[in-house]
Amino acid sequence: MNTPEAIKASPDRRLCLNDLRNDRVQVFDAEGKLLLAWGTPGERQGELRSPAGIAPNGAGRIYVTEVGNERIQVFDTKGHFLRMAGSSGTAAGEFRNPYGIAVHPANGLVYAADTGNNRAQVFRPGLSG
Description:
Shape: globular
Largest sheet: 4 strands, antiparallel
Radius of gyration: 13 Å
CATH superfamily: YVTN repeat-like/Quinoprotein amine dehydrogenase
Number of helices: 0
Number of domains: 1
CATH class: Mainly Beta
Strand order of the largest sheet: 1-2-3-4
Structural class: mainly beta
């Protein structure tokens, strides 16, 4: 690892960790055994650039904020890209250095800390504003 940035436990007791400088996500079991790692540096769908925040939900999705690409990406539990939201800017749905992220366990709303814009943004589970 090189600069582990965020770690969150998933409802199925796996630990999801962002490896910021290696542009990847790593998933461990409850005993710390590496189960899965994914991510390659880049800007295309499924590629990562400085992943900072991570939030697994109870529906088999892992939400990742990227400060390098100014967006949120959603992956399944195998690391397959599902969707993304955001771009660089100051309007609703745009980011400047998004870091923290959380998913509400009851309603699935996604809360993202838009650090550079000094605000939090809220998205529906499908990442619409």
